[in-house]
TrEMBL record, chains A, B, C, D:
The keyword Metal-binding does not apply. Signal peptide: none annotated. It comes from Enterocloster alcoholdehydrogenati. Residues 1-67 form the DAHP synthase ferredoxin-like domain. InterPro entries: Aldolase_TIM (IPR013785), Class-I_DAHP_synthase (IPR052899), DAHP1/KDSA (IPR006218), DAHP_snth_FXD (IPR041071), DAHP_syn_2 (IPR006268). This is 3-deoxy-7-phosphoheptulonate synthase. Keywords: Transferase.
Length: 339, 339, 339, 339
């Protein structure tokens, strides 16, 4: 932690700050210049909790030096993590493709989609049973019935299955039927849910919040891992900006940024990021080229009739074509697309 | 709903769209121009759920005409709501001031603050028992113990008390001790929590999400009201922007915007909006001048030692001074500050 | 300047950094902790231009301690500036109201508006002769003809007049006819224009860029003042965010933030900030309550026929009513509205 | 244009709107529903300039149907443009790589870089002679002297050369020495400069503004093309968001969005977008995979000593390695990297 004093800070003000630091058993380091004085504090920052130095007299600002996330921090855990899920693993060497409908609408819709995405080369079936929708009057999902269809699809196809969970109750239900839990963007800072997901021990896909910084996202992951669950995969799905030509703005830089800051795998969801199916293909390729560990793509037997997010869903044919086109990009990035 | 066709859309494409609309029992209205054709659809939009017209051939874009929130919409409920809470009400004629510490740290801290804010003229005591914190290693709150102190403070001072809830469990606990529930910014789209708050029948303060649009915020309120609970007050607390000189950017325009779009009362939290106590006073005055129904302000016996949000908390003296300065603004806005 | 080393930085890496600092005639101060080493550098930062320490081996990040703007910085010039313009001054004690049409459309329109805003209590007439418009097909302004009408309006009413300038040529022309130059939001980082405005010696109203930080805005002002022209007034006019219910998001916090960081006066333009005339009144009051030194408000004889920004313009009656309502807010803030 | 009436709009209010439309020689189309009435207007929207229908009584909102840019609009000009510059062309089939230092610092620095980027496969040398810098105290460029070095580098290597221009004067000077003009992000809505660039007839690289929407960007291009100059290439260089782990947020979706909305080529600048050299490689690959027509990359003989943007500049070795890695991505996208 670094404390920057105001240009006109008195000697007493500086002394008050250094005394406070020493009183907590830490050592202050002074750098006195012609314009400003800087006080460096190295050590266990948590000892200063409840000492709001930024409002001490004469203090201009306080700059944090170390990240608050530790267990997901690459600085302390330099090796990239491999997250085992079902019959595969997510991380180095693999390109994991999760595909399926935004919402599970019926047994038929799901089974049909499962066989189609399996044939095209996906290794995960995605599908929403609990749908967080902006309006209470929109379709809210089939809940546990949907989870049962997911399990059936898994048994029929050998695909791993993943479902979003929106409450402790949903985690409990999903744990019986699926291979991996998804925490959605709107719940990225639902800390109660993160703790429950941590306790479940299940692999968790943690989507980035609509306006979460990378640091907040990694702190959210820290909530899960600090409960003893290291099986976390991050998913970039677009952030909120002023631009309206896409539903969100895919922050493709998040892929190399996460690679530098954390050891957790990171995948990309170009469907939610853009909201427009014509943009899904180019951005899927971009994500693989940027080094993503996988993709989450919405596929629907008949997008024009989808109850949720139809405009961004690919048809079976379009998905199969995209998977073919992705193969050489996958090879270039040194990853295998199948398990 | 309005469907705008592409300049080169064929007659068949237009017919396909109008046929689809008619098949749902609705009537399309065609406007054919030299460059583009527009199809207007008036009526019950929900009949078109699962008809993703935007991806029909020849369609350029689809524009929604009506808001998806109905019960909180001023267009259909033109009279401003008055929300009764404890021994007072929030809405026209009143300026409700909620004050207290970010986090309840101890019985002493809370009681001392309660008497101080009461003396200065506040009618609500705020205080967090369940704290959603970015890092799992930050202080997380006293939970039910804190709620008990709140009840005690209410009984000792006659203040109404409000606490944030972060789970169904917390709602159940808080309902026993406090007058009003608060849904925090990070949970504004935690739809499970919104539904539970709706079912509780308790008055709810709904903070705006960190990057929620006004429309998403009103849809979140619609989740609560559609469960039969109309006792909702909105709270603007700053939105996320690129500017870093304040913690968030107070969207002061939200006050007149909400006044135009909804009948619900709206208050302002200048403490969380700025994160800097020197800015709390000017923005509190601005909020009252802009027409807010109230204020939420952080007050702490010793901000330098606060376990959460110390830098934005006012001392007792500063709060009392601010309340004095607010009085004439309050009168100008035609509101009474005390109950 | 503070240099934060990576946790695993070698001693040689640290030495390389301190050697580099010493080679520039500066003194490094080391703070060595269990996790990280911090190197403080105090002194003339400009000596390190061209030494990109952030990419030296073992360096995690570099944090700047002092602002790059000096002459407009309150730290070094603590007294609030008073900017003399025409027959008045902008700054402490005064509330300056600039009113008029977005664009000058005709001699009649301008003269009629000038008399109306004068009667209502404005001290400045605003009006655009050079209009920066998003589309080349929108009305671009009357240019020098418009400037002549401004001068005529000044002579007829005694109002001070202000016009936006968009090029060196426009500055030259405007200097002959008006009292104050306006640099618009889109040109806030048109550094050539800033330098020319600095050289002109004319009072300058510097609008905040559409997505400028407060620091970038003050650096833009530094371009003007560093040419020897201290007569600068800042104007907050809304920033770009994701919210669409207003044209821009008025950053009302900018008023107290500027007050803390700079000695320059700051006014607020609620018309451009919101784009909706129903919101202009509440936000004008909020701006005065927050401590602004003035307001810029769009007024038009017939907003429904305005060639630019009609929807946000007030009628003469609405403006007169607003000015009456503003008076008590003005008194509360210790300012006089007339000269 | 579509006019949406308020639910309670009177028949007279609707009639007033339709009368106004008819008075301008246009035909209104009414769609009357149970809740709202919609009025469609098809035809030459410019006839309604100065009729601000949004503020007519009973009007809820007005929705624009067609884009204001015409000449750069793919709807009216479906074939992708090819922009000839110097000895090459930018557009379909080619991947144009522009490389060089942020700022031209000396003849030696520029010549050395020119030979290095040429050897690695670039076809353009970039280098700034007029530098728009946030602070007036930062290095501002060598101006015309720098342009002369650019010409010399072109003659020595056969590379095409491109320079940013920041004023009409700079356009005049640059036209004598370089093959292509660059309009920087900060000047994207400097409309005077756009018009001058249009009049020059020189090929223009138009960078996206720091917070420009895609539509504003295309309107800026329309300023150039409407002066008779169709030789425009767009450059995505990151937009401003709340995220701070990169200097800007690369909006990779802009590539397919532009491809859909306009016939102009679009290239990507990963150096300015991220500000961090470790991220340049992954994002350069992502840009090619997303379909970009080219890349602009900062290269410097000694990034640690660069006077501008050193931290984001690649060394010669790193650039050569990146060019090698880009080759297979280039082939996959069906483009040739050399001329």
């Amino acid at each position: 932690m670094i404390i920057i004093m105001k240009p006109n800070a008195s000697e007493e003000a500086v002394k008050k700050v250094t005394d406070l630091i020493e009183s907590k058993g830490l050592t202050p380091h002074l750098s006195q210049g012609s314009q400003v004085t800087i006080v460096g504090v190295v050590g266990d920052k948590s000892r200063l909790a409840g000492s709001n130095i930024e409002i001490s007299e004469g203090v201009d600002k306080v700059v944090s030096v170390t990240e608050s996330y530790k267990l997901v921090n690459k600085k302390f855990h330099p090796d990239d993590s491999v997250v085992p899920v079902g019959n595969t693993h997510i991380g180095p060497g693999n390109l994991t493709v999760m595909a399926g409908p935004c919402a599970i609408e019926s047994r038929e819709q799901l089974m049909e989609t499962a066989f189609a995405v399996k044939k095209a080369g996906a290794t995960f079936l995605r599908g929403g049973a609990y749908k967080p929708r902006t309006s209470p009057y929109s379709f809210q999902g089939l809940e546990e019935e949907g989870l049962k269809y997911m399990k059936e699809a898994r048994e029929a196809t050998g695909l791993n299955v993943i479902c979003e969970v929106t409450s402790a109750h949903a985690i409990e239900a999903a744990s019986k039927y699926v291979d991996m839990l998804q925490i959605g963007a709107r719940n990225m800072q639902n800390f109660e849910l993160l703790k429950e997901a941590g306790k479940s021990g299940m692999p968790v896909l943690l989507k980035r919040g609509l306006c979460a910084t990378v640091d907040e996202w990694l702190n959210a992951a820290e909530y899960i891992i600090s409960e003893g669950n290291p099986h976390i995969v991050l998913c970039e799905r677009g952030i909120r900006t002023y631009e309206t030509s896409t539903r969100n703005t895919l922050d493709i830089s998040a892929v190399p940024v996460i690679r530098q800051k954390s050891h957790l795998p990171v995948i990309v969801d170009p469907s939610h990021a853009t909201g427009v199916r014509a943009y899904v293909g180019p951005l899927a390729k971009a994500a693989v080229a940027a080094g993503a560990d996988g993709l989450m793509i919405e596929v629907h037997p008949n997008p024009a009739c989808a109850l949720s997010d139809g405009p961004q869903s690919l048809t079976f044919d379009a998905f199969e074509k995209l998977m073919d086109e992705l193969k050489p990009y996958c090879e270039l990035s040194g990853r295998r697309i199948s398990f």
